[in-house]
Amino acid sequence: MFEKLDEIEAIVNKCSKCELCSNRIQAVFGVGNPSADVMFIGEGPGADEDREGKPFVGKAGKLMNQAFLGLGISREKIYIANIVKCRPPNNRTPLKEEANACLDYLRNQVMIIKPKIIVLLGNTALKNILGEEYGITSSRGKWIEKKGIKYMPTFHPAALLRDESKKIDFWKDLEIVKKVADENKFVI
Ligand code: URA
User: Fold this and answer.
1) Strand pairing report for 117-121 and 144-146
2) pLDDT at 1
C-alpha cells in the first residue's frame, strides 16, 4: 500500500495487470481534492477520458457537471475516480477479472483520501465496492453505511443519456448527498 496518490498514479500509468492496458492511450487515475470528504466512483474511462486522461469529461460527465452546477457541488472540492483505470473496448462493462486487477488501486486511493461519503455511480461501482448482492434500481437513493463511510448508490450518468426519466432520481439522490454533506460540514 502507498501513502501518496502520486505514487499510486505512477504505478497505474505503467500498469499491465490486465488486458485493458493494451488498448489505452493513457490510464485515467482520478481527479480532484486529495483530501475530499465526498468521492464519486464511476465505471471506467470512455473514449474522451482515454484521450484526456481525466474521468467524466465526455457526454456523461457533462451531464453530471450540470447536476453539480444546479446543486452547488464543486468538482474541485470532491474526488472522482473509476473502478477500472483503462478504457474497456467499445465501452463494455469491465470484466470481473479486470475490476479485480484494478480494485487495489482504488482501495488505496480511498485509504489516502479518507472520504466520508462515496457516491457509487451505477451497477459496476455498486457491485464491485459493496458486493454482487446489490442492484442499482433497488439500492439507489438509500444510504448504506460500512466501516464509517456513507455510501450513496445512484444511476450512472450514462444511463440518464439512454433514459431521460432517470434524471429525476439521479438529481434527488445527489440532492440528499449535498444536504447530508452540508449538515455534517463536509466539503462538497
Ligand atoms: N463513464 C465512467 O464510468 N467513467 C468515466 O470516467 C466516464 C464515463
Assistant:
1) unpaired
2) 87
Mean pLDDT per 10-residue segment, the chain (188 residues): 95 98 97 98 98 98 98 98 97 97 98 98 98 98 97 98 97 98 98
User: How many distinct structural domains can be found in the chain?
Assistant: 1
CA distance 135 to 21: 28
Domain membership flag for residue 143 = yes
Protein residues with CB under 6 Å of any ligand 1 atom: 42-46, 49, 55-56, 58, 60-61, 82, 158
> What is the domain extent for residue 23?
5-182
Indicate whether 49 belongs to any domain: yes
Tell which atom from ligand 1 comes closest to the C-alpha of 80. Answer: 6
| Cell numbers that stand for 179 in this block | 444536504
Which is nearest to 31 in space by CA: 85, 68, 67? 85
Q: Kindly report the pTM of this predicted structure.
A: 0.97
Residue among 82, 102, 156, 162 to mutate when testing ligand 1 (max atoms within 8 A of CB): 82
